[in-house]
């Protein structure tokens, strides 16, 4: 292509006659001569369409294949089926106020809010509870989290390619249905697994005779509910696919170029505020007992390790809300009024047909995969997605174990830091790109800068390496007796304690014990809260501690020992800043992808991005994090048969260093590919016009409007 010498990636090369180039918007009639080309400058108002000027050059139609049409005049409007809001002939006037980009964006935000609340909020916050209730390991709950992305990965290419030619708002109505159905299915195990048995009548003191339980070779039937959770996530992934491919492209079609980043940023920020709502709502629901619907009184408190919250209520609420959005999306027309006029201001396209057929899918896919700039941007988002989804899934568990908080408190803190920071980053990224009208190259440089800043802030996990509190038999001996890694010692050898009964107590000596039995306690008083224990043979009081009235009243009390780590406020503040800078690159990279690919391949480009992002990022992310966190476990839940269940105690320092190693590695990969995209991208020179593709007998033109205003300064 002699006219595009500065462009070295295939984004600007049409793969087939059905992949037309972007044309200059200055004239409704495209001429072969480029001498009169006058691209729009930054700050200049949009030019009104001018009457076609006669030129001594041969008209474009003379080299256009039979059957092709110019997108000008009345014929251009037929490509965009604009219409009123309604269903068939029923088009009430009251609905027409919603038939605007703002009206569509409002409903898009509601759906993104619901999807984010379920997938990245309620699912993540309920992980710890589901592990305990259904006896699952973190690696298996990581598989549950990844199931959403598996469905997204499998469907994104086909939905984005086929849906681009279809009725995109109705695809979003389908998305609403599937998201609601997935939320409903995800809550079903609660209603079929029976009442939660937490063993409140069992008093595990040293003198209590223990009934030997028989060991059955078969595993618990609760394990099979894993497949129900996976099915729910697959349905949620099916619903999320049109939302972030077709919905984003529909918004970009319906608004001018300079507003596109702002609208997309608002939509994406809602998908992040959704998890915030999910975390806050889920945190409150976890403070309610899991079987609250049965209306029975219980004798355990929230700080009891056997406590499980009502994780399932939020999914039922999301099911109802998602299905309420089916009707609004089904009434939108195929294109919003004014779409054709907006598109005429962006591009003028010559092509053989009004759409792509499925036989063109391989050629279009190959064209995008050969686009080096596009692939660099996609790979940078993949590495970023791996670490962000891992933290979204396991950050509450990290805070819970690192700082000794309850599950609900840790989930609430994680949500109030992670989600607002992500939403703020998305909004700031979109506003800055829109306000300064950045060119594609400047947008990529902006994303590179924010990625480098986020990399530097990631080392906060080194600072948050809080020591584990002393635990008898794990990190502390029984007054100098026994062995580390063995809960049994001479002081409790005759108590016949059960390893399957985890009920931690904190001794007056500041050491935590697995249960009252392993502490050698023989008496208790249940009227006090928390419950207190006496006559504990394994607890030795420290003589140097100044006696207080409370210290003489008991030798141990129920619950974990309070953490002495004071790093929580600083950790949350620095981590919040890291999240803001991480997500500031989200909207700019999406806008860059939309600008560096062919006009008719934007939805497919987003589909490829979503597929690879799931395949290389969000699918392995929770699994890698789950396996990594499991590797730091120092005390497993082991039943009478010796089968491992959930982990009770983690090595905090090892967990912190393992997570920072994963985070820094992914951030370095992100910075590398963002920098490579900046290096490889060469904006088209001013005046690029009408290069011929003789093998296809089609006249096409590349002109990316985001580069025309400042291309001379970025080359």
TrEMBL record:
Chief site of localization: membrane
Subcellular localization: Cell membrane
Claim: Transmembrane is one of the keywords in the record: yes
GO BP field: monoatomic ion transport; sodium-independent organic anion transport
Keywords: Cell membrane, Disulfide bond, Ion transport, Membrane, Transmembrane, Transmembrane helix, Transport
Membrane topology: Multi-pass membrane protein
Domain Kazal-like: 485-540
InterPro entries, per database record: Kazal_dom, Kazal_dom_sf, MFS_dom, MFS_trans_sf, OATP
GO-annotated molecular function: sodium-independent organic anion transmembrane transporter activity
Residues in Major facilitator superfamily (MFS) profile domain copies: 104-678
Biased composition (Low complexity): 26-36
Signal sequence extent: none
GO cellular component entries: basolateral plasma membrane
Location of the region described as Disordered in the Swiss-Prot/TrEMBL record: 1-80
TM segment ranges: 105-127, 139-159, 171-188, 224-250, 262-290, 310-332, 373-399, 411-434, 446-464, 570-594, 656-681
Keyword DNA repair attributed: no
Origin superkingdom: Eukaryota
Protein family: Belongs to the organo anion transporter (TC 2.A.60) family.
The protein's name: Solute carrier organic anion transporter family member
Gene encoding the protein: SLCO4C1
């Amino acid at each position: 292509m002699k006219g595009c010498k500065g462009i070295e990636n295939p984004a600007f090369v049409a793969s087939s006659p059905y992949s037309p180039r972007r044309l200059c918007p200055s004239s409704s009639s495209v001429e072969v001569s480029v001498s009169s080309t006058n691209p729009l400058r930054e700050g200049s108002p949009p030019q009104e369409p001018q009457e076609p000027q006669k030129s001594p050059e041969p008209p474009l139609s003379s080299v256009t294949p039979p059957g092709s049409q110019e997108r000008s005049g009345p014929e251009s409007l037929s490509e965009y089926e604009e219409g009123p809001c309604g269903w068939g002939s029923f088009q009430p006037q009251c609905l027409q106020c919603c038939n605007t980009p703002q009206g569509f964006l409002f409903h898009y935000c509601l759906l993104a809010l619901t999807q984010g609340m379920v997938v990245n909020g309620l699912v993540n916050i309920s992980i710890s509870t589901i592990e305990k209730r259904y006896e699952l390991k973190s690696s298996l709950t990581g598989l549950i989290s990844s199931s959403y992305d598996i469905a997204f990965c499998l469907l994104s290419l086909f939905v984005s390619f086929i849906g681009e030619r279809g009725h995109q708002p109705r695809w979003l109505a389908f998305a609403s249905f599937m998201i609601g159905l997935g939320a409903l299915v995800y809550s079903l195990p609660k209603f079929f697994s029976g009442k939660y048995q937490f063993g409140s009548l069992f008093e595990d003191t040293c003198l209590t005779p223990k009934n030997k339980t028989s060991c059955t070779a078969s595993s618990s039937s609760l394990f099979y509910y894993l497949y129900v959770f996976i099915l729910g996530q697959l349905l949620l992934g099916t619903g999320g696919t049109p939302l972030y491919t077709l919905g984003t492209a529909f918004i970009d079609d319906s608004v001018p170029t300079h507003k596109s980043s702002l609208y997309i940023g608002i939509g994406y920020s809602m998908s992040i505020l959704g998890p915030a709502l999910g975390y806050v709502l889920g945190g409150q629901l976890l403070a309610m007992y899991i079987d609250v619907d049965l209306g029975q009184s219980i004798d355990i408190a929230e700080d009891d390790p056997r406590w499980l919250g009502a994780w399932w209520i939020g999914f039922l609420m999301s099911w109802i809300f998602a299905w309420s959005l089916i009707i609004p999306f089904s009434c939108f027309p195929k294109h919003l009024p004014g779409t054709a006029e907006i598109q005429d201001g962006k591009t003028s396209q010559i092509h053989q047909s009004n759409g792509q057929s499925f036989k063109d899918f391989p050629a279009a896919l190959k064209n995008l995969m050969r686009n080096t700039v596009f692939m660099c941007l996609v790979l940078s988002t993949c590495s970023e997605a791996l670490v962000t989804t891992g933290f979204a899934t396991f950050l509450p568990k990290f805070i819970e174990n690192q700082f000794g908080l309850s599950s609900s408190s840790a989930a609430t803190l994680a949500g109030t830091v992670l989600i607002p920071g992500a939403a703020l980053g998305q909004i700031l990224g979109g506003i800055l790109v829109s306000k300064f009208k950045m060119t594609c190259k400047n947008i990529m440089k902006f994303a590179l800068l924010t990625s480098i800043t986020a990399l530097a802030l990631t080392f906060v996990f080194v600072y948050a390496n809080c020591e584990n509190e002393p635990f008898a038999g794990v990190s502390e001996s029984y007054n100098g007796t026994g062995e580390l890694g063995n809960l049994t010692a001479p002081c409790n050898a005759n108590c016949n304690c059960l390893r399957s009964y985890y009920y931690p107590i904190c001794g007056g000596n500041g050491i935590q014990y697995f249960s009252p039995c392993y502490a050698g306690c023989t008496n208790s008083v249940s009227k006090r809260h928390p419950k207190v224990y006496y006559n504990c043979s394994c607890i030795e009081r420290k003589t140097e501690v100044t006696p207080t009235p409370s210290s003489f009243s008991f030798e141990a009390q129920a619950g974990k020992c309070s953490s002495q780590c004071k790093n929580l406020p600083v950790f949350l503040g620095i981590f919040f800043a890291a999240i803001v800078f991480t997500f500031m690159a989200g909207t700019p990279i999406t806008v860059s992808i939309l600008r560096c690919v062919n006009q008719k391949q934007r939805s497919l480009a987003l589909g490829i991005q979503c597929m690879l992002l799931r395949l290389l990022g969000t699918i392995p992310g929770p699994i890698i994090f789950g396996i990594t966190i499991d590797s730091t476990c120092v005390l497993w839940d082991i039943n009478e048969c010796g089968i491992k269940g959930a982990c009770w105690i983690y090595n905090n320092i090892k967990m912190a260093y393992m997570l920072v190693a994963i985070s820094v590695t992914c951030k370095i990969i992100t910075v590398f590919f963002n920098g490579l995209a900046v290096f490889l991208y060469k904006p088209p020179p001013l005046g690029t016009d009408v290069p011929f593709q003789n093998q296809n007998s089609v006249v096409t033109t590349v002109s990316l409007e985001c580069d025309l205003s400042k291309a001379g300064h970025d080359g």
